[in-house]
């Protein structure tokens, strides 16, 4: 806005022109104020938070579906279990001729409770020692493997609660307490916990991309956060008290506890503005690997990092760099794209952004005038059309189309609409150009984090059903089984069969290690 003129130097005609101009501006401002008052009155009448419907960009940009053909009849039922044949006889009158059988398939579920008392032989050997016959394979404790499978299946995939599960078992005739059901869910699950850790390691080693998200979680009566990591082959969950970048980098180590100083670590420190003198101080030391947090903290203390009070925090940046160095030292995330919803803690490595979350910022923007609403709608239309063309590019990438899409991105997000808040938002999105257009160089990368949101929904349901966990073991078992369940679904393995194979149930289908299946899928064709 130009500075006000010196009124004493203006002529009468100039003063008259100035007054007319100011009266016009006052009229326009009065109209704007009236519209804002009407909008405020409407908003005051709302109860609770205003309901903002989803943008709908993802569904609206899907390619048209082919016309539906005539409705097909139901296909042949193919049970996953062996079919037992039973002949049903009928009293036919004299003179009838037998014409074979008419098949009629019936599926049923048999729930029965067994109580077996094993009379284990006991022998006294000549040397005075006693030997007792071992229990059959699959027996661990006073509850058999089929019962353990049933409990794990209903609790994790059926999303049942502990009290309801206990009542159900008791109504079937099982003599069991709630405490014993809790033990079946958490105790002696080391093999499952180890397999969940191997799933994460296999995914981080072979995945061309991963998508990440987090949600709130309660543990030991305190608020925490559950982080999801996965792609179209695997899912892994980890609940921790914090959702900082330090926590995320720690999760990406997949159970390793070391801190490593290598080229990736020093590159991270330079990218995050750690002074070159401090980087040199770390680089000139002979020790480059530290076994755990205490050893790393002692090293920083010896180098004087803990006494510094500069910005950015030298201890934090150096620790994040050493964690990033550990991630790469173990062979994780080499050239892997990390796709997120623009939460700051996930911005590591080759980072990409979700288009649905980016467009949602424009969708949720408050516009109080007709001109602003029109500008908002024009920009949303441009983004929707652009998003549809990005989907087409993913299916059939090409160099010429890549250059055209880059130029078109500039025209959309560098435009000026006259709606100041919208223009600022477009400038913010334009600053994220490289992360939003990762798909142009890596077409295998999804355009949104819908997969992560779908995965983490199961954890949200579990949280609503059963609140929080009380022990670290209970937390780890919940996260591990939910991750294994989602991974089995993505690998098209029935969770029931997976549990039967791991619990050693006789006759159960043999399921190979999930980590091996993930590595096979991650290998280039």
Q: Layout of SSEs?
A:
Layout lengths: L11 H33 L12 H4 L61 E3 L5 E3 L12 H13 L4 H11 L5 H9 L3 H17 L2 E11 L2 E9 L4 E6 L4 H8 L6 E2 L2 H9 L4 H8 L5 E2 L2 H10 L11 H16 L7 E4 L9 E4 L1 H9 L6 H26 L3 H15 L6 H12 L1 H4 L1 H4 L8 H17 L5 H19 L4 H8 L11 H9 L3
Parallel strand pairs: 3-8, 8-9
Antiparallel strand pairs: 1-2, 3-4, 4-5, 6-7
Helix pairs in contact: 3-20, 6-19, 6-21, 7-11, 8-11, 12-13, 13-14, 14-15
Would you kindly provide a written description of the structure presented here, covering whatever features stand out?
- The chain has 525 residues and is of the alpha/beta class.
- Among the domains are: 122-193 and 485-522, no CATH class; 201-336 and 456-462, no CATH class; 355-441, no CATH class.
- 50% of the residues lie in helices and 8% in strands.
- The chain has helices spanning 12-44, 57-60, 145-157, 162-172, 178-186, 190-206, 245-252, 263-271, 276-283, 293-302, 314-329, 355-363, 370-395, 399-413, 420-431, 433-436, 438-441, 450-466, 472-490, 495-502, 514-522, and strands at residues 122-124, 130-132, 209-219, 222-230, 235-240, 259-260, 289-290, 337-340, 350-353.
- Strands 5-4-3-8-9 form a five-stranded mixed beta sheet, sandwiched between helices.
- Strand 1 (122-124) and strand 2 form a beta hairpin.
- Helix 6 (190-206) packs across helix 19.
- The longest helix is centred in the N-terminal third of the chain and has 33 residues, at 12-44.
